[in-house]
Amino acid sequence: MVRLILFGAPGAGKGTQAAALSGQLQVPHISTGDILRSAVANQTSLGLQAQNYLDRGQLVPDDLVIALIRERLSQSDAQTGWILDGFPRTIPQAEALNQLLRDMAQQIDRVINLEVPELVLVDRMLSRGRQDDTEAVIRNRLQEYHQKTAPLINFYRDRDQLITVNGNAEVPEVTTSILRCLEQPHRLPG
Ligand code: AMP
């Protein structure tokens, strides 16, 4: 059982790694981006509220994603662990997650920060060709990341929960590095 947050800029490989790790560790891969895209495709009320933000590469309002994650983490398959991909993305989301986990008497085991140089991020996003991977939208997503999401690095570092992994390597190599972090007893900085 493991409760893991995969953290990183858009294009860092969170989704790819979460999918691989989910199979190996037998815990659900929970991607707020995937849930939101499917809500948009199905035109649910969540999808209708989120669509404009996704199209523009802006973060969906905190209250919507916090409600979504509260619902998802309460489901039965999430009681024995999970890998979060793309959540939390703001300090209020991280605080809401901590509160939610306190209420459920659960805790985060690791926050893995996948580090990838910015030029590589842009190349990767342009080559995967998702609908929100056009140049203008990518620029917005990177800006949102730097303004609202990157501060979480210090948030989790201050709580001794962050481990940084080099994400600029072949996919299986990155998976191996992450698995190695999970085997080790938690390393304190310094
Ligand atoms: P992703 O697939 O993680 O790159 O997410 C795609 C898009 O979904 C983002 O650009 C945001 O518009 C939205 N999104 C996903 N997760 C979150 C989140 N935790 N907070 C706000 N917006 C999110």
Give a count of the beta strands, DSSP E runs of length 2 or more: 5
Report how far apart the termini are: 28 Å
Instruction: Please state the average pLDDT score.
Output: 95
Strand content: 5-15%
Radius of gyration (Å) = 16 Å
Shape: globular
In spatial order, strands of the major sheet run 2-3-1-4-5
Helix content: 55-70%
Described by strand count, sense and barrel closure, the largest sheet is: 5 strands, parallel
Query: What is the H/E order?
Result: EHEHHHEHEHHHEH
Chemical compounds bound to the protein: adenosine monophosphate
Question: Which structural class do the helices and strands define?
Answer: alpha/beta
Poorly predicted runs: none
Number of helices: 9
Comma- or semicolon-separated keywords:
5-stranded parallel beta sheet, 190 residues, alpha/beta, 9 helices
Topology:
Blueprint: E1 3-8, H1 14-25, E2 29-31, H2 32-41, H3 45-56, H4 62-73, E3 82-85, H5 91-103, E4 110-115, H6 118-128, H7 135-149, H8 151-158, E5 162-166, H9 171-183
Parallel strand pairs: 1-3, 1-4, 2-3, 4-5
Helix pairs in contact: 1-9, 2-3, 4-5
This protein binds adenosine monophosphate.
Adenosine monophosphate binds at residues 10, 32-33, 36, 53-54, 57-60, 65, 86-89, 93, 141.
General description of the model:
There is one protein chain. The protein has 9 helices and 5 strands; from the N terminus they run βαβαααβαβαααβα. The chain is an alpha/beta fold. It has a 5-stranded parallel β-sheet. The mean pLDDT is 95.
